[in-house]
Amino acid sequence: MQDIIRQKLEQIDALFPPERLEKSKERWTRLWQGEAPLDRYPFLFAPFQFGYYCAGLTPEECLLANLDDILAHGQTRDDFIPAFFPGCRQSTIPSMFGAEEIVVDGDYSCRHLIGDPEDIDRLPEPSLGPGTVAYDWLVMEEYALDATEGRLPVHPTDMQGPADVCGQLWGYDAFLASAYEDPERYHRLMTSVTEAFIRFWDAQRRLCGDRFVGTHLYGWNWVPADAGASISADSLVMVSPAYYREFYQPYLQRIGETFGGMAVHSCGDFSAVIPDLCATPTLKAVNAGQMTVAELHNAGVDARTLIIAWAAPDNLEEIFQLIRDRRLRVDMTIGGIWPTTPQGVKPLAEWTTEDRDVMREFEDRVMALAAEIPQSTIAVR
Question: Can you say whether residue 260 is alpha, beta or left, with left for phi > 0 and alpha for psi between -120 and 50 degrees?
Fold first, then answer.
């Protein structure tokens, strides 16, 4: 093990002793299982400097960036569980079919492999071999396990769901229309891509073994082992409830059934499909990129489905009040705690006493709100 990695892991062990980790895991487990809170409601502060969609780093650079973020989290009293998150490249599953990756200004996409429906007939079997982005992620995850000697759990990379992989392979307009114009090929393509998703998720799970943390929503969240798979499905904003039920749900459900549950993410306002999404068997959680907790609840998410959401610091009281009043379950990541400069987040080594005092004041506010939940929350199961 490299000295710098060993030193950082030793600091992490000191900041996150076993009793802290076990208590946080119990808080998260109770939330996911719909049980009353242990001693307070769990919460997370937003990541430090490692970008969620960070890509293009070498395995060593990515590991060191993760370790530095973990050390910053150790300065707080949130429920962060140290783990390694590799990042996101939307070309990942398309590359399993041979799609060429395209990188423009840090945005990772791919060239279309499908120009007309007949091209679906010529798609190869998906591969996890060298030359694919999926293979690169497995190499990175194996590096993180080896470099830390298994001391750090590992998340999967961001996993794009079947429909969004098809959109990358073909283009969304043509792909979505094909459900009506050529339903046989539509379902054949979706089946193949769904199986590729399952194969890649399972490869990461088997590689990491008991060090696997099965979520990328968000990449720094911890989930219990029975949480299932996490799926990014941004194209939910493009479809109607009827389209979702006939052409999306069977494939999401297939993933959920394979892994014992699922959490689904979408950006934008996908309110129209939320009732049907929540009615999907095996769905355990919903994550929204731009919708608030209140908007998700108003659209139909109740205590039976966990909400994974971002919370702004200026409306925390309203969110916690909603949790109490509606008995919601919210896996909450809170922004606004880290010291900043005009250039961005301030490195940990440059924090001043004033920075730490401001952080502690904000943290005390969140801790007080979180402590109020046990007295007013009733278990939903």
Answer: left
